[in-house]
Each structure stands twice: as structure tokens, then as C-alpha cells.
Amino acid sequence: MIDFLLARIGSAIVTIFGASVLAFAVLRAVPTNPARLIAGPFANDEVIAQVTANLGLDKSLPVQYLDYVTSFFIGDWGFSYSAGQPVLSQITERLPASAELALYAFLFAFFGAVLVTVLVSFLNSRWLDRFLRLLSFISVGVPPFWLALLFLMVFFERLGWFPGPVGRGPAPTGLYTGLFTIDYLLAGDFAGFGTALHHLALPSIALALGPFGYLVRLLRANLLDIINEPFVTVLHAKGVAPISTHFRHILPNAFLPTLTAGGLILAQLLGGSVLVERIFVWPGIGTLVIDGILRQDYAVVQAFIMLSAIIYIGVNLLVDILYGYVDPRVRRS
């Protein structure tokens, strides 16, 4: 197990190195001088040269890259000149909003897909299976931003059941984690917890329906493959109870691809969902990055690329560790 973890950690380091090189190279390939953008259109050559020196853009590319990587890992993520504050402060301020939205969207998509698919496969109902297939196809094919607009038109404007595009709602008096639902629970304010969930409902469901449909299709296909395996026939012949066969033998064998896909979906959601955040005026990092791209704020974009790579690698490493607990074959190997 230790060798397995060391191999995965080594692979993660190589991947982070590749992401850092990509972020550094792509942004410097853009035919725009960041110093001129920061100095303004009326700055003379002397001012632009001074800004270039302050940014370290007058150094060689290898030295710039080493400065960039070193600064990132010591917590210096650069300065956002468009916002007038450090990038780390901006991301730290907005990351909890994106993390909370991603967490609830993932819970709905992953656990909802597993629960519904396993239940339908266990009941072995043709009509329920057809309905589930139809629902999964529709969920995968509909863009999240279109769902977000539809939800606002129906559930906010027409029915008035949910709040509109007003962001996260009122903040709790004491912020411990930055996640409103958890902070309300820690404060014992259950009314505030309900209000936070009320604001989270529409954007999280709009984000979750696509991954929900994908996970349903993936798990259903794997379950059907495993159900037809010879060992399942042997279990039935030995008189093993159907519920035990389904949940102790079929599901664990069919679950690994779903676990992998779930990890990738969680990492993707944690990276921010730009259009849905825009539509619901959600103060997450997706909106921050779009503003950084539009304003050509390279420090924000570079930090986001590195942060996204670390999130993806961290989640994948966690999924690899969970493999050993889900599948005994991985644990033995």
C-alpha cells in the first residue's frame, strides 16, 4: 500500500509540474504586454519599463518560471491590479461559495444516481428502467445554464417557491468555515440553515442534473454487465438472498468506474461553474476567473489553473485510496 501511495504521489508531482509549465507558457504566449495594461494607455516607455521590472518580466523565462512556482507554493499568488488586492485574498474569499455549491451539487448527483440506479436494478422493473434511461438522456443533453434560466423562470418568477438571482443570501453572524450551511449549524441557527439551503437548491440542482444523468448511465451499464456474470448465477443457485447478492456482490464489482467518475465530477465542480454562478449571482471563483480573463489579469488566471490542477490531483489521489476499501482485489494487490 505504501508503494502504491508513493507511486501516486510521484505521479501527482509530475502532473502539477506539467500544469505549472502549461499555465506559465500559455499566458506568456498571449500577444499582450501585461505591463502596458497595468500602466494604462497613457503611460510612457519609462513607466512601462518600471512596471515590467516590478513584475519580473525583464528576467529570462526559466528564472520567471522558478519565481512563479516558488511564489505560488509559499502563498504569494500575485497581485490583481484590476481588483487592487492580492490574488490569494480574492480566491480565499470566494472559494467557500464555490465549494459549498459544488458540494451540494455533487451530493445530489452522486448519491442520487447511486440510490436510484441500484433501486431500479434491484426491483427489475422494465418501466422504471425505461423511465430512468429517459431521465438520464435528458439530464446529460441539457446544458446547466439553460436549466438555471428555466428554473428561475418557473420556480422564482412564476411560482415564487425559491429565491431569485441574489447570491448566497444573508451570511451567518459567525463565519467559521465560510460554508453558510455548516456555519449556521455550528451556531445552532436552524432557520438560517434552511434559508441557506433554500438559496442553494436551484443552482446546485442545475449543476447536478448533467453529472446525475452521466453517473446513472455509467452505473446502470456496469450493473447490467455484472448481473450477467457467471458468479452471480452461482450465487442464485446456492440460494443466496437476492438482496445480499445485489448489495454485497454485484454493486461492489460495478461501483469502481462510478467512483472514478464521481471523483472527476467533484473536482470539476470545485473548479467553479462559471455560467451558473453568473446567472444566480453566486460569488464564487468561476465569476472571478471570467472577470480576470476579460480584464487580462494574468495573476488570477495563473493561480486558478494551478489551484484547479491541485484540486483534480488531490481528489484523484483520494479516489485511488478509496479503491482499496471498496474492492478487496485492489487492497490485496
UniProtKB/TrEMBL annotation:
Membrane-topology annotation of the record: Multi-pass membrane protein
Keyword terms: Cell membrane, Membrane, Transmembrane, Transmembrane helix, Transport
Sequence intervals crossing the membrane: 5-27, 101-122, 134-156, 196-216, 254-280, 300-326
Name this protein carries in UniProt: ABC transporter permease
Principal subcellular localisation of the protein: membrane
Lineage, uppermost ranks: Bacteria, Pseudomonadati, Pseudomonadota, Alphaproteobacteria, Hyphomicrobiales
Taxonomic superkingdom: Bacteria
Keyword Phosphoprotein part of the UniProt annotation: no
One Pfam family matching this protein: BPD_transp_1_N
UniProt organism field: Sinorhizobium medicae
Domain ABC transmembrane type-1: 95-323
Family: Belongs to the binding-protein-dependent transport system permease family.
CDD domains associated with the record: TM_PBP2
Location in the cell: Cell membrane
Entry-linked InterPro entries: BPD_transp_1_N (IPR045621), MetI-like (IPR000515), MetI-like_sf (IPR035906)
Keyword Transport found: yes
